[in-house]
Design the sequence.
């Protein structure tokens, strides 16, 4: 294990002269089609990258990345795949890569999905508008600090009430289970509207009931051409992966949300104009993108991973009792006045095992697995003990799930080790945790492309774990359903901490 060696240091320790990047794109059309079928049909995404890395004996190699539309759509699927921790860092270097219009790869769903605005995530750091919009996103997050935790707790409470009721209603079933996806998405949507936009969706019945479904459809139309869904082949290839999906299908829903933000989030929109010089239309479209794509999309993917992993029936490492103990200790501390409060941002940073578990989940299953960037110039890409010549204009495609299982960096890389990030050695590994499009040890800034909510995302996930163990002595999850909820038995030494006002 090389926990304290930075990727740059390990890569440059023995730098051989650059060699050509191995791998081939295959014959025109046929090569891209073969790779597309492997990616979506014959292999999983993971297997796709693993097999090619093995076949090329290299963690940097050439391949086509789907979708591969007919030539007249004009998308070039040729990329340089990067699947080790050292070379991956090139994707965070603004002097090397241009991030213009390349969020989900060579395919860009287009501004038709965002009310005609090229929103911040599609802007490169060299475009002046990026700095303006990123600063606005970070400021909105900063402003939300006073409401974020309480809005989240309220959402989680409502979600768990609904799941409990569902499970109780099915108590006589042979194997009772309550699916949590809809209540979770409802919780995420409502809390984000309150925290980010400053608007309570309950003022608008349609937005409150169907807002999250509108976002699901909106997200699906943008990203499905790049995703394996699992419907019967070749239908999936023909219907979903062969052409860009049209944005007009979701315009009525999108504009319903647009009007909601315009009317009820007027303060945030005015703030964008007054403090950041962003006009009304661009402010609303950017707010909706941050809320719907970055935040709602990110949490909707990540929180189920986390809940399912912690709730695994087998619990081979006895993780649940250990997490419960840590959460209960934090509760006790708060109840006896030794701490600030529980389940706010402060407490989220004072539960080391909970936090390490969240980091390990982000390492094993990063919610945004692929990162892209176009070479600004010819440069040498350094990997462990190898160097490759990249030409200006080539697209780098980093696959995080392999880069963050790099055996040169992580011990037992394929294993879920909840305590991996504990202690000094564990903290040193955080430089190799890349889920936020940057090392966990770096900070998002107007001049980089790292997730604006890097800290808040980890804190929020910690709060969810804490909230589960505040309420339950134990629980079990199978896939996307709770199968067991054991309510917390009151302890004679512990009174309920005052959650109100906890931030
Ligand atoms: C689990 C939740 C989240 C995940 C996994 C996530 C992940 C990411 C990733 C990977 C990027 C970089 C995309 C790229 O350029 O390749 C990104 C960018 C961004 N994220 Fe997040 N994010 C999450 C939640 C949030 C939240 C809650 C917010 C704000 C409220 C947010 C705001 C942003 C913004 C503004 C950017 C663009 C940064 C830039 O253009 O410089 N994200 N996020």
Sequence:
């Amino acid at each position: 294990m090389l926990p304290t060696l930075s990727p740059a240091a390990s890569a440059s320790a023995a730098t051989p002269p650059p060699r050509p990047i191995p791998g081939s794109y295959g014959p025109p059309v046929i090569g891209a089609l073969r790779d597309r079928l492997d990616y979506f049909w014959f292999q999983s995404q993971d297997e796709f990258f693993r097999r090619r890395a093995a076949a090329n004996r290299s963690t940097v190699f050439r391949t086509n990345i789907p979708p591969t539309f007919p030539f007249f759509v004009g998308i070039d699927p040729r990329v340089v795949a990067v699947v080790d921790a050292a070379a991956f860092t090139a994707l965070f270097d603004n002097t090397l890569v241009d991030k213009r219009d390349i969020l989900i790869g060579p395919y860009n769903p287009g501004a038709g999905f965002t009310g005609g605005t090229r929103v911040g995530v599609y802007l490169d750091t060299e475009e002046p508008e990026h700095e303006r919009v990123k600063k606005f996103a970070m400021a909105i997050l900063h402003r939300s600090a006073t409401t974020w935790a309480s809005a989240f707790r309220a959402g989680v409470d409502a979600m768990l009430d609904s799941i409990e009721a569902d499970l109780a209603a099915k108590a006589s079933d042979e194997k009772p289970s309550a699916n949590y996806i809809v209540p979770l998405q409802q919780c995420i949507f409502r809390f984000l509207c309150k925290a980010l936009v400053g608007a309570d969706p309950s003022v608008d019945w349609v937005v409150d009931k169907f807002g999250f479904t509108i976002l699901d459809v909106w997200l699906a139309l943008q990203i499905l051409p790049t995703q394996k869904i699992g419907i019967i082949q070749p239908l999936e290839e023909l219907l979903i992966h062969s052409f860009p999906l049209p944005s007009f299908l979701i315009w009525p829903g999108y504009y319903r949300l647009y009007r909601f933000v315009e009317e009820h989030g007027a303060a945030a929109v005015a703030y964008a104009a007054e403090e950041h010089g962003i006009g009304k239309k661009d402010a609303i479209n950017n707010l909706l993108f941050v809320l719907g794509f970055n935040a709602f999309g990110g949490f909707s993917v990540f929180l189920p991973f986390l809940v399912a992993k912690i709730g695994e029936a087998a619990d081979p490492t006895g993780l649940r009792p250990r997490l419960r103990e840590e959460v209960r200790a934090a509760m006790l501390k708060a109840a006896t006045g030794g701490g600030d409060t529980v389940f706010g941002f402060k407490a989220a940073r004072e539960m080391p095992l909970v936090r390490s578990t969240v980091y390990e989940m982000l390492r094993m299953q990063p919610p945004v697995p692929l990162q892209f960037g176009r070479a600004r110039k010819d440069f040498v890409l350094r990997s462990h003990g190898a160097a490759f010549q990249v030409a200006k204009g080539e697209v780098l495609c980093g696959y995080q799930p392999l880069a963050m299982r790099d055996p040169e960096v992580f011990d037992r890389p394929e294993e879920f080790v909840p305590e991996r990030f504990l202690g000094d050695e564990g903290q040193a590994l955080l430089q190799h945790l890349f889920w936020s499009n940057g090392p966990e040890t770096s900070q998002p800034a107007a001049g980089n492309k790292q997730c604006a909510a890097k800290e808040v995302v980890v804190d929020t996930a910690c709060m969810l774990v804490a909230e589960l163990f505040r309420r339950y002595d134990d629980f079990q999850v199978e896939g996307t359903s709770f199968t067991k909820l054991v309510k917390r038995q009151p302890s004679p030494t512990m009174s309920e901490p005052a959650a109100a006002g906890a931030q």
